[in-house]
Amino acid sequence: FVRFANIEEDTPSYHTRYDFFVSKYSAMCHANHDDLGVRKQIRLAGIQGLQGVVRKTLSDDLVENIWESVHMDKIVPSLLYNMQNS
Q1: Which residues contact 66 (CB under 8 A, 6 or more apart)?
Q2: What is the DSSP secondary structure assignment for residue 11, as one 8-state letter?
Q3: Which of 4, 17, 74, 77 could be disulfide-bonded to 26 (CB atoms 3.0-4.6 Å)?
Q4: pTM of the model
């Protein structure tokens, strides 16, 4: 998704919604796999996914605002959780 987020679009996407991605990547940030290595990989992928979503929405003025509380209520706790557990 990070590579996808960096692709410049020629036409605006009026219908694009990223709430699904925010939810999935936030859930990955809270992964609790028994294997520590796998857990770290999943959590890192979640953080990178959130980074990609934020970058993608910042470059597209026509999509929903990523700074709205509906999104930030998922993103901020996910990042803080990983900062606390690192």
Answers
A1: 18, 22, 53, 54, 57, 58, 72, 75
A2: S
A3: 74
A4: 0.79
